[in-house]
Design goal:
about 550 residues, alpha/beta, Rossmann fold, Alpha-Beta Plaits, 4 domains, five-stranded parallel sheet, five-stranded mixed sheet, 19 strands, Diguanylate_Cyclase, CheY-like_superfamily, phosphoprotein
């Protein structure tokens, strides 16, 4: 981090020096300068500069036409220049940042927070993010999308004065939440007996009214998450599909592996993934998606061999464990299952359609040292089936294990006017890996440069980190233009904002942003969010 601090300090001093060559500067330039300092300094371990910049921003004149004479701005920025004197570019303080990043490692449980009153949502988000990963949805459709795609562990719905909105969200996810043991909490403005009765009937686990005690709220959430963990530990079947779950998978794989090591008993696994499942959800709705998952599982369970084990691996991905079966035998078995399932027809609103799946088969052999390697081989074969057109079965071929030159691309774009943020994020995000994909990363200083590049019109899938406040074209304008020109299905968009209580955040979420993170941010937390959100683009 010392590199970023050195660049930041040099750039800040250079800006002030260049301003000294002019008789005056605009209020807009002053705002952009302080906004950039506020958002960047703490992210690279200089929180005292963020504090000074924040205080100065609160004193800025309201008029955008205000002109700062040289003597005036030099006096106004004297607290900043005094703070800069404390930091030498040759001896910046790094240790506090190292501890900060260590403390802010991403949390395991994911909380979905639903509401459009930005002050209330921001306060809740700030409180929760000290303990959990948090995603925000400002409307019902986004809440349902996040619930199904990101699979949160806990859901909080802020009713505020829009009771109908809150109950629509609750009713949309209640059945799925029950099956998945996902607790739902409603926040109301004041106790109301009839409202509470209606909420409990709709599927809410708990109701609290605002204002509430933060410690009590956190204790309630932790209590429910612990109950969820205990319940899930007691069962071996997936609640929705009836297939075995991951707990059973680990036990059965270890048993099969022990048999192989002791008696050289052959076994194979197949990774099965429904084709274009996100498109099905988007076209026909998540209820239809759940119905297809159930029908898929029923088909496999009814038609598999009696001694085979069918497991839900995650989302729309499943695994079939086939004891005493080599790779070729496994391929024939899975192809038979694919034929049966692909002949099944579904109907929604008068439209009839069929579905298929892709599969990758892998078998044990002496060069495999662990079950994780076996699963990885199955994943690679599945990836080849997807690349080759889907609706097929591929067997892992060790001769084709290095597929790097054929990998699909996930393109990560950083649109921010701060070069320090560019360098910081490039150094960290280029290390991210995604199964079956390679990462291409590019930075843009502003929205105009982004659109002029035509970079976003290439084939591939895109993750955009978009600064909310930039000169000329701001983040909302970039989002609006992007929505007009492209299919947002191919984009994951994370807003970077220094204004956590700004109504523009709600507008950004409505325009297609998937999440927002407030500057200054923890790099490790940002990496975790990019990784989590990008998963919905794969396959």
């Amino acid at each position: 981090m010392q590199k970023y601090q050195t660049l930041f300090l040099k750039r800040t001093r250079s800006t002030l020096q260049s301003w000294g060559e002019h008789r005056s500067i605009t209020n807009g330039a002053m705002y952009q300068f302080l906004h950039s300092l506020k958002g960047t300094a703490s992210s690279i371990g200089l929180p005292s500069i963020t504090e000074v910049a924040t205080n100065l921003m609160q004193q800025l004149p309201a008029s955008a036409d205000y002109e700062w004479a040289k003597e005036r701005w030099q006096s106004f920025l004297s607290p900043l220049t005094e703070e800069l004197k404390k930091h030498s570019t040759d001896d910046v303080r790094v240790e506090p940042l190292i501890e900060k990043i260590k403390d802010e490692a991403p949390r395991g449980s994911l909380v979905l927070l639903v509401g459009d009153q930005i002050d209330r949502i921001s306060n809740l988000k700030d409180m929760l993010e000290e303990h959990y990963a948090v995603m925000v949805a400002a409307n019902e459709s986004k809440a349902v999308e996040v619930f199904y795609s990101q699979k949160p562990d806990y859901v909080i719905i802020d009713l505020h004065q829009k009771e109908d909105h809150g109950f629509h969200v609750l009713s949309s996810i209640a059945n799925k939440a029950r099956h998945s043991f996902v607790p739902t909490l409603l926040v109301e403005d004041a106790p109301h007996t009839m409202l509470r009765k209606k909420a409990y009937e709709a599927g809410a686990f708990d109701i609290v009214h605002s204002p509430f005690d933060n410690e009590e709220m956190l204790a309630l959430i932790q209590n429910r998450l612990e109950l969820k963990r205990v319940l899930q530990a007691q069962i071996l079947l997936d609640e929705l599909t009836g297939a075995y779950n991951r707990k059973f998978l680990q036990e059965e794989l270890q048993r099969q592996w022990a048999e192989y090591e002791r008696y050289e008993t052959m076994f194979s696994v197949a990774m099965l993934d429904l084709d274009r499942f996100k498109r099905i959800n988007d076209t026909y709705g998540h209820d239809t998606g759940d119905h297809i998952l159930k029908q898929f599982a029923d088909t496999i369970i009814q038609n598999k061999r009696q001694g085979d084990y069918f497991i839900r691996y995650g989302g729309e991905e499943f695994m079939l464990i086939m004891p005493k079966t080599d790779g070729e035998q496994a391929r024939l078995i899975v192809e038979r299952l694919l034929k049966v399932f692909s002949e099944h027809t579904f109907e929604k609103d008068g439209t009839t359609f069929t579905c298929s799946f892709s599969a990758g088969v892998a078998s044990v052999h002496p060069r495999i040292k662990h079950t994780d390697e076996l699963i990885s081989n199955g994943d690679q074969a599945l990836y080849m089936a997807k690349r080759n057109g889907r609706n097929q079965v591929q067997v892992y071929d060790e001769q084709k294990r290095d597929l790097a030159h054929n990998l699909d691309v996930i393109r990560i774009g950083i649109i921010d006017d701060d070069p320090i943020i560019h360098e910081l994020l490039q150094d960290h995000l280029r290390k991210l890996t995604f199964k079956g994909h390679k990462v291409e990363l590019r930075t843009f200083r502003e929205g105009e440069e982004f659109f002029e590049s035509k970079w976003y019109q290439q084939d591939g899938k895109f993750v955009l980190l978009l600064d909310g406040v930039m000169p000329r074209m701001d983040g909302l304008e970039v989002l609006q233009k992007l929505r007009e020109e492209c299919s947002v299905d191919q984009f994951v968009i994370i807003m970077l904002t220094g204004r956590k209580k700004d109504q523009d955040i709600v507008k950004a979420l409505d325009l297609g942003a998937d999440d927002y993170i407030t500057k200054p941010f923890s790099v490790s937390e940002l990496e975790a969010r990019v990784k989590r959100l990008a998963q919905r683009l794969l396959f």
